[in-house]
């Protein structure tokens, strides 16, 4: 796996560099790019956009899709993996009748501003619910909302918040605590894992991609959605949201092996969550979809809780001046939590990414060859 793995050419220092590397790699591979421009700007005034590449025949029956930056700051990982596939011979290995769809920075605002959330302050991976119906409830979060994101990050108010969280955690258990904190909530705009009150720009953009590239008209679509922050350092866990007994889960295990995990079965580093992007892909594609969130571990979950708490605090109660020392400290902390930026971690990212993309490509071909 070492040969041809050029870390310095794949991974970037910021959103703008990542975008430039991705678009250059697509051009070199002979692909086309559709650009969906975000109405906002980055911290240096740079333009923000989701760039979507198509490589292969426009009428391809089979599509190998990748998504980066669902959670903004996690885009360093996914963008690096996408550039690696483009520059390490991925396009040449596409089978006849197959195309690659590469969605780069579906949440460009979060990528540029080093946030997990969108410009609306919404966790995109909790935003895919039907807002015409009652949204899911999370009574645990509602009970602890002001403790999860206290008005102060030091001193008596902070200490009291931590004590409340520790007591609740002790009483209800770790699983209940993680569901309360991260399962998704729709009541506290200033809080963590907020699913929003309507579709975000990023969700609407993803839905436009579904239509613009006629994904519903394909015979099979495999999706690798890159994430970071859960599990052992550097390990890439293929998390399936397909439920037990479904065609999608059977196919995921057959393609990717027994390392596939399922939150609803308790086998994953992730607890069950609501409003996931996969649910929107599933709505469009049904049983033609095979989807995994490729989750790379970084640092421990408590470090992640601290990083998210301080970033939410900064944007709700602090002075998020990009040049302010407190802002720089908090942004460096959340960047490191979701992008360790070490060579050993990046090598593991590319190894696992190459493996799953190969397995997905071969799985699409094998299933397509079966009698219909």
Account of the 3D structure:
The protein is α/β, with parallel strands linked by helices and 372 residues long. The protein has two domains: 7-131 and 197-298 and 339-368, Aminopeptidase, CATH 3.40.630; 139-193 and 303-321, no CATH class. It has 13 helices and seven strands. The chain has a seven-stranded mixed beta sheet, with helices on both faces. Helix 3 crosses helix 13 (343-368), helix 5 (139-148) crosses helix 7 and helix 11 (301-316) packs antiparallel against helix 12. It is globular.
CATH class of the largest domain: Alpha Beta
* CATH T-level fold name of the largest domain: Aminopeptidase
Main sheet makeup: 7 strands, mixed
Oligomer: single chain
Rg, Cα atoms, Å:
20 Å
- State the CATH superfamily name of the largest domain: Zn peptidases
**Principal-axis shape:** globular
Q: What is the tally of helical segments?
A: 13
Number of strands: 7
How many angstroms does the end-to-end distance come to? 36 Å
Number of domains: 2
Low-confidence stretches: none
| Portion of residues within helices | 40-55%
Spatial order of strands in the largest sheet = 1-2-4-3-5-7-6
Provide a quick synopsis of the model.
The protein has 372 residues and is of the alpha/beta class. It has 13 helices and 7 strands.
